[in-house]
Design a protein that fits this description.
Structural class: alpha+beta
Helix content: 40-55%
Largest sheet: 4 strands, mixed
Bound molecules: glutathione
Low-confidence stretches: none
Number of domains: 2
Length: 222
């Protein structure tokens, strides 16, 4: 079987998501940086969308972390990460998509505002309020037991560890606190302690700490 190559970087939460799934499926893979950076002509010659993460396996080139996630789950069904009947699977997909389309975007909108000299305080307040609102919506949508699908890690869980960590970093960078709904606080702890999550999250955290320190001109603990 052709080798799995993951194009990405360490700071991207979407790459972290895919690394968690690869680890949970006990897959060996090779990490590659996009040649000349993501979005470059050299990278687009390999991955037309120009985004990271992308998974390449022989002739197969996949971008979009959700497509990669579902491919990995179908190609290596053990352990199953989208278990249950159609309704259960629909709920898990809903929670996975909620991460990508609702929870993470308010934080992404703040990337350009972390450096103090480039910061717009009104944008920071608006996007951090939106992030807090979306955490509340997630707490209404989900019943972690302790993970979103119960005891076992599912595809619904894999985007959240890096984004919860990034949310804490953003709050720390702006001198704010984000009130984590109680159910999500225990969920975050359960995720961070999961053996398939820990290595990918540690790697993402180290890169994110460096990124914040470079933008802020000082170390940031979060
Ligand atoms: N929906 C995409 C989001 C991935 C994404 O936004 N990646 C960023 C880096 S974290 C990227 O490649 N940005 C380059 C661009 O948008 O051109 C996925 O799930 O893979």
């Amino acid at each position: 079987m052709a080798e799995l190559v993951l194009y990405g970087n360490d700071v991207s939460g979407y790459c972290c998501k895919v690394r968690i799934i690869l680890a949970h499926k006990h897959r060996a893979w090779r990490d590659e940086a996009p040649p000349d950076g993501y979005g470059s002509p050299a990278y687009r010659a390999i991955v037309p969308a120009g985004t990271i993460p992308a998974l390449v396996q022989g002739n197969l080139v996949l971008s979009e972390s959700e497509a990669i996630a579902e491919y990995l789950d179908e190609a290596w069904p053990d352990p199953p990460m989208l278990p249950g009947d159609a309704a259960a699977r629909g709920r898990l997909r809903q929670l996975a998509r909620f991460h990508d389309s609702r929870l993470e975007p308010p934080l992404r909108a703040l990337f350009a505002h972390v450096a103090p000299e480039a910061r717009d305080d009104a944008t920071v307040d608006r996007q951090m309020a939106l992030y807090a609102q979306r955490l509340g919506e997630l707490a209404s949508l989900a019943v972690p037991r302790p993970l979103l699908g119960g005891e076992a890690l599912t595809l619904a869980d894999c985007g959240y560890p890096a984004t919860f960590m990034l949310g804490r970093g953003m709050a720390g960078a702006f001198g704010l606190t984000v009130a984590m709904p109680e159910a999500l606080a225990s969920y975050e702890k359960a995720l961070a302690a999961h053996p398939s999550v820990m290595p990918a999250l540690a790697r993402c955290r180290a890169a994110t700490e460096q990124w914040f320190a470079a933008k802020l001109g000082r170390p940031l603990a979060f």
